[in-house]
């Protein structure tokens, strides 16, 4: 077929040549205008020929080599003359390897008859486009693309009113100002092609941008990608009657919407990738019979895709990824048979994928990852003969991987990870001859892992499944190109001789963690090295000593030996390697072992060092001061003594400092630098003392502060050294110390992180993700909170990221509970127990509608329990015992679930659940407020009864109506603090 058409065109070409040659070579050839001839020669002499080649040029030629004095310029390469006048009217020097600066007096500007000028793909060394370009008023085609022109486009370019095509793209140093833009758009009314990406057009305001609307109806192609355009893009451009192509790629701040009607009928390419276009994809788009490429990734489109959309039968490229589209993908998808590239990833599509792929004979890429798609995997996927990339990961697919004769002979990437796929790996997966990456991790696959025969395989990810049986030793024979191997978190068994991995010379990433029955033979005598292995994860592998093969890893950069039974001191050779061989090591996790003796010496570039839950002793040595790249330092649950090295406070990127539960003493370093990155500081369970340093409040990123169970003392105040102290704090635990003085009301005022949960940035999950090519490393690091229930302290680990708590218990705080606490509306836990707090329980606490756990026990609180507290619909734990509270216990909602122990030790309380019933006098309790309160809000108690608790029934209701200000008052008292 191909051969035939090639022959045909060759014959045609030959015939044409025969017909053409005599006429061109003899009579009609014009004689070059003398002046033009000389201008061209001067032009030639101002440039050198360079040799660096542009990949965009399919061929290069030294065109000007043929330009010689004394010959006719109409014969020269790249030159076209007018057949009658002999004037040069066309100059095509694209890909001509010209190099050098343009001269403002360049003789090129004297060629005023030029109609077509193409200087694309040369190197003019950031020369300006000189204003003289405006002298070439006959130009219809101007192409200066990818030629290293710089500075700004001269306003005289608007003189080129005959232009049909203007291409200035690929000149990264060019700018186009607003006035020039307006003049250009105003004067070039015949323009068909305008290509300006990535020229800096950021100074152009919305009003001037909208001039495009009045633009000539002749426009066929408009490309303004990466120009820094912003404001709203006039959607009526998409209605210009001849528009075939619009590209606005990469204008992050350019807003706009797709038109609901009046689309430009010939539109064939629409590229709005990485813009701020939003709204729905309208039905009317379905009328675009010629649309080939619809590229809308990384915009803000939302809503459903209507049935009309699937009329776009000519689509070859459809990319809707990274939007907020939802709804099901209908079987109408089968209309789009010409698709080559289909990317719907990172949306909210749900429902099954229709089983309609039998006819997609051209599909090259299919990506629906990161949606909520479910159901079985359609078996017609296996018919896609041209498919090279299939990504269905991060959905909710169930069932097994289909089995049948497979046509996927071109498949290079297969990603089904993070679904609920079960069953075994079908045979076809083992033998795809071009496969490079296979990711089946995080599913529910079972059975054994058989023999892979895809020699090309570089990445094999099978982690977090239920694979059983022996470790597939066949990988050592067949997969010699393997770079990444992750078999972690399965039920694999058998013995792996580590020396076998030396056969995989390209291996850089190996994770065999968490296979209960797998043992690793680490003591081979075979002489081998693994020159490329840099990431090694052997967590929960039953290791009892540091594997000696580690010394053979020349380039180790990441090491996870956590959760093993390593019961020894850090060997000297290990420290030696850290100091000399493994200098680029960035993550070490040795936590949850039984390591003893001194801490290891941190390599200089370490970013995450977790040594927690071991038996390390001694001080934190000054060698830690060299590890200035540290992001997370976790030394918790050891037996470390001595002081905290002061240098830790000055590390510029330290996020997590966890030294909890050791024997550290002394004070907190005083030199914590302002503006650093601390998110978590846990120093609880040590012998630290001194006052709470004021710099803590300057830590703008701090989310978790735990100083529990130390010997800190003094009052907690704000120094006002920070504008918004503790603004992101979510967990504030200073319990079990010797703090005294009033509760820190000014601090509470600033706990923005406990007030507004809508700000996502404040509540990003703790822990740190590290991207490692296609694999990310996630440090398992969870914030925890101690809750005291029924006399027992329970540590809640793996708490939700939105868990916000304040714990000031077991100190010597006195004074009253500040009203502002009621503003911390997302607070889930509040513990003020075991202090000397007096006064009443403020009404504002009724606003803490997220509160689940409240402990005020062992204080000197008096007055009544505010009925507003019955508003706390999530309250599960309440402890008000051992105070001087009085009157009737509110009833209703959660209050019906609390038992005696919530209230004991308050002899003047009565009512359910206490056995002491309230007398009639007691029932009118709400009116017995303290005098000051009473005088300010004469009828407050009534309102409380009605508006918040609805406890006191009819007679209070009647009283209430008399006040005639029911609603706002109820809101005042219960809805908001006062
Ligand atoms: C071309 O040659 C003529 C005569 O030899 C000479 O006068 C003229 O300066 C030359 N032009 C250029 C541009 O070198
Ligand atoms: C350009 O020509 C003008 C007048 O002919 C002259 O004054 C100027 O110096 C020239 N500039 C350059 C850079 O040659
Ligand atoms: C528009 O083009 C004409 C013809 O080239 C020219 O004379 C005029 O100055 C141009 N107007 C503007 C605003 O550039």
Automatic annotation (TrEMBL):
Domain Leucine-rich repeat-containing N-terminal plant-type as annotated: residue spans: 34-82
Cross-referenced Pfam families: LRR_1 (PF00560), LRR_14 (PF23598), LRR_6 (PF13516), LRR_8 (PF13855), LRRNT_2 (PF08263)
Principal subcellular localisation of the protein: membrane
Keywords from the named record: Cell membrane, Glycoprotein, Leucine-rich repeat, Membrane, Receptor, Repeat, Signal, Transmembrane, Transmembrane helix
Transmembrane annotation, as ranges: 937-961
Compartments (UniProt record): Cell membrane
Record's bilayer topology term: Single-pass type I membrane protein
InterPro entries cross-referenced by the UniProt entry: Leu-rich_rpt (IPR001611), Leu-rich_rpt_typical-subtyp (IPR003591), LRR_dom_sf (IPR032675), LRR_N_plant-typ (IPR013210), LRR_R13L4/SHOC2-like (IPR055414), RLP23-like (IPR046956)
Domain Disease resistance R13L4/SHOC-2-like LRR: 271-444
Leader sequence residues: 1-26
PROSITE patterns given in the database record: LRR
Gene3D superfamilies: Ribonuclease Inhibitor
Similarity section: Belongs to the RLP family.
Protein name: Leucine-rich repeat-containing N-terminal plant-type domain-containing protein
Protein species of origin: Stylosanthes scabra
